[in-house]
Amino acid sequence: MAAPVDTTTVFLPDTLKGKVAFVTGGGSGICKGIAEALLKHGAKVVIASRSLDRVTKAAEEMAKSTGGECFAVSADVRKPEDVEKAVAQAVEKFGGIDILVNGAAGNFLVPAENMSYNAFRTVIEIDLIGTFNVSKACFPHLKKSKGTILNISATLHYNGTPLQSHASSAKAGVDTLTKVFALEWGPYGIRVNSIAPGPISETAGIERLLPKEYAKGYIRAVPLQRLGSIRDIEHMAVFLASPSGNWISGSNFVVDGGSWLTGNSFQYPDSIERMRKMAKL
Ligand code: NAP
Ligand code: COA
């Protein structure tokens, strides 16, 4: 069952007025949704990814749809020099950074025995090292603003997800960074949390990771009996970025319809074989 169209507005439109957000991966999918939600609630938003074309188009589109100010910058989160430059551009444009969303990520299905050394390293570099790089570059600005970080994690590593050894390991590291940053930077007034989405319909993640045939069986193992929507994740991001989250730090919020409770263990080990067949691996 697809996620229902959800037009609910939960927060006041000026909830994030005066705030500036820096969103990596904000040109597509879940993080574009988060960027748009931050704009709708009054924040100015900078979106960053490798493709300047993608973020520029997304920024224009979202500025139009929300009436907010959205600025696009290009950066590969694996490259500290790119990241430093993008953060400097953001600060020059909007005067500071209050909210950092670390959403840039890469993932694809591949059995560990067939995964190249470089494939494993690539995903670790984007998801985990990228999260470190961008957080470190934004730190002086977040310290000044007593700002907040939202890391976009996953539930892959709770049980370990077959065919995603790279991303499972990377997101485990991301959750660790959430805790360590919360400990180290809490005394400066910086709150650090993560959101762990379950499978979200109409995203690159779901297209790459959940073959259509396999999805039917998967949904039966989601207690709420549906995939998530981008909107489901946006609400959590606005909640955590707003004063509603003022005493929340070092926490991870699972938004997955309860599916982490059934996890990837359903029908193990046949599920791995079926997934491999359906994904033609
Ligand atoms: P997506 O649309 O593919 O978003 C990933 C974004 O990351 C893209 O905009 C991409 O833009 C950017 N990116 C990739 N490599 C980068 C790099 N080296 N430097 C800078 N930016 C880079 O995927 P999504 O499915 O919405 O996923 C968004 C986030 O949610 C990810 O953190 C993912 O792990 C997490 N998540 C997704 C799901 C799901 O069901 N979709 C479930 C759990 C967690 P460029 O190509 O322009 O760089
Ligand atoms: N299966 C197996 N290996 C794969 C693969 C796949 N589907 N896709 C890439 N790889 C391997 C490549 O072969 C390469 O290894 P090699 O040098 O040993 O051959 C390595 O991974 C790096 O690939 P490359 O295409 O050079 O990396 P990139 O930096 O250009 O792109 C990716 C990064 C691979 C993560 C790319 O899929 C991407 O840009 N993803 C962003 C979108 C995304 O993944 N969204 C979902 C988020 S949940």
Automatic annotation (TrEMBL):
It catalyses: a (2E,4E)-dienoyl-CoA + NADPH + H(+) = a 4,5-saturated-(3E)-enoyl-CoA + NADP(+); a (2E,4Z)-dienoyl-CoA + NADPH + H(+) = a 4,5-saturated-(3E)-enoyl-CoA + NADP(+). One of its GO terms (cellular component) is peroxisome. GO terms for biological process: fatty acid catabolic process. This is 2,4-dienoyl-CoA reductase [(3E)-enoyl-CoA-producing]. It comes from Basidiobolus meristosporus CBS 931.73. SUPFAM superfamilies: NAD(P)-binding Rossmann-fold domains. Transmembrane segments: none annotated. Its EC number is 1.3.1.124. Keywords: NADP, Oxidoreductase. Gene3D superfamilies: NAD(P)-binding Rossmann-like Domain (3.40.50.720).
